[in-house]
Amino acid sequence: MTEPTVNTPLPAVYVYEKPIRLWHGLNALLILTLILTGYFIAAPLASVGGEASEHFLMGYIRFGHFAAGYLLAIGLLFRLYWAYAGNGYAKEIFQPPLLSKVFWQGVGHEILWYAFLAKEPRKYAGHNPLALLAMHFAFVWGSLFMVITGFALYGEGTGQGSWQYSLFSSWVLPLFGGSQSVHSWHHLVMWLIVCFVLIHIYVAVREDKVSRQSLLSTMVTGWRTFKDDKPLDDVH
Amino acid sequence: MNETFYDVMRRQGITRRSFLKFCSLTAASLGLAPAFAPKIAHAMETKPRIPVLWLHGLECTCCSESFIRSGHPLAKDVILSMLSLDYDDTIMAAAGHNAEAIIDEIVEKYKGNYILAVEGNPPLAEDGMYCIIGGRPFVEQLKYAAESCKAIISWGSCASWGCVQAAKPNPTQATPVHKVPGLADKPIIKVPGCPPIAEVMTAVVAYLLTFDKLPTLDRQGRPQMFYSQRIHDKCYRRPHFDAGQFVEHWDDEAARQGHCLYKMGCKGPTTYNACSTVRWNEGLSFPIQSGHGCIGCSEDGFWDKGSFYERLTDINQFGIEANADTVGGTAAAVVGVGIAAHAGLTALNRAKQPGAER
Fold this sequence. Notes:
Chain B: [3Fe-4S] cluster binds at residues 275, 294, 297. The complex is a heterodimer of chains A (236) and B (358). Chain A is an all-alpha fold and 236 residues long.
C-alpha cells in the first residue's frame, strides 16, 4: 500500500464488476422468491374452492420455486466461474484466508466493533473478515446445500432415471435417511438463509452509515469510496 | 432332484388354465411385457421348486398376516403352493424339536440354494437375549441360516429398517438385517412396509423363483418395480394438491369431498411404496382413500420422525419437541430483535459522540 495523500480520502477502488452486480441483484430476487414459494409449499395457503380442474395454485407456486431454483443454481455456477474470470475481489467469498493470523485478528476486531467495544472499524476494499466468514459459511455453503438438497427433492418428482435423480436424489436421500429428513433439512436451512439475509441487509445499511467506506453505492456502481485517508487493512 | 413348481401346482389341484393365468398375471404385476408370460410358464415347468426358510425375529407377524391375504385368490393359491414354506413358525404344522430340525435339514440339503425370508429383526443387546427361539438367541439362528442361503428377503420395515422396536431409544438394540454384524455377505432384498403390500410380497417371491435372479433394486436395496415412486406421485387426490385444495380439519367439507391430506400431515410426498397403485385388500382401498394421511410406514425410521399429523420432522435435540419452523422462526425472531436492538444502540452511540463525522 502506498501512503495516501494527506487529508483527501483514499482514491476509490473498483471492486464489484458489472456481472457480479447483476448477479447480486438477480440472486437477491431469486432468494426472496425461493423463500416465499418454499414456505408456501411447506405450509400451503388457505384452500381454494370449486372444482380441482379450475385451479392450479400449488402447481404455480411449485413451478415458481423450481424455476427460481434452477436460475439460482445456474447463477451460482456463473458466480463460481466469475471467481476464476473476474478480479481478485470476486474470489474472496470462495476462499477466506482461514489460515492467516491477520485474518482472524481482523475477525476479532470486527466482533469488538459490533459489540461497541472498538472505537473505529478497520477499513477494507473488499469484505471485512467477519463478513467474509458469514459469506463463505452461511451464503456459499448454505446456497450449495440448498441447491443440492433442492435438486434431490426435485429428482423425486422427475423420477428414477432422470438426471436430477441420478445426480442428486440417489445419494442424498439415503445420506439423510429418507425423503422426509431431506425436506426438514431443506426447510431448516431456509431459516438459516432468512437469518443471513436479515443480518446481511442490516449490516450493509449500518456499515454504510457508520463505517469508513461506502457499501450501498458500491453495490450499485461497483466503486468503493472511502471516507478518510488512512490506509486499507486488506491487501489485494 | 425335486418336483418343479408346475408339478407342485398340479398336485395341489390347480388347472393348467389357472396356471397360465397366473403366469400372465405375474408378468403384468411385475411390469413385464406380455411376451414374458410364456417364459414364466416355461421356467415354472422346468425349474425345481426352491424352498423358503421364513424366520421370525422381533416382529408383530403383520407381514405374515398380509402375505396370506394376498389379494388375488389365484395368486395366493399358486404362490403358497409354489413357496415350499418348509419353516415358518407361524403357519407350519411341526413344533418343538421337530420344527427346529427342519432348519438344519434345509441348510444341509439345499446348501446355497434356498431363500431366507426374514420377518422382524434381531436385538443385539445382552448377546441377543431379548429374542430367544428354540432356546437360542434369534441372531444366532439368523446368522446360521444366512450362511448357506441364496439370497435374503427382508420382509417389512422391521427387517428392512428396524421399525418400532428400533425406535429411539431402542433398548434392545434391535438391528435391521443388513446391519447385523457378522452376517454372511448375501444379496438382501428389502421389502419395507408395516406390513408390506401382499401383492408386492408375492410378486417379489415369484420374480426370485421364476427368473432365478434378484429383481432390480434401488440404491437402498428395494425392488425398483414397487418402490421407485412415491405415494404422492400416483395418488388419486393429487389433482387437489396441485389445485391447492386441502383438508384443514378432519370434519370439514374438504375432508368429505376427499381433498388432499397434505396439511393433515400426510407422508405421501415422502414415502416410496406402491399403495396408491396396487392398493390393499384386493385393490379395494388404501389409507389415503379411506380418508387418513399416509404415515410413511415403509420409510426408514418413520417412528422417529415426529407426529403422523405434522409435515415437519421433530428436532429432538432441542429438548422440547420442536420442528424446523419453530427452531427457524425463533432464530429469525431473535435475529430480528437483535438487529433492532443493535441499530438502536448504534444510533445512541453516534448521538453521544459529539461532532461525529459523516
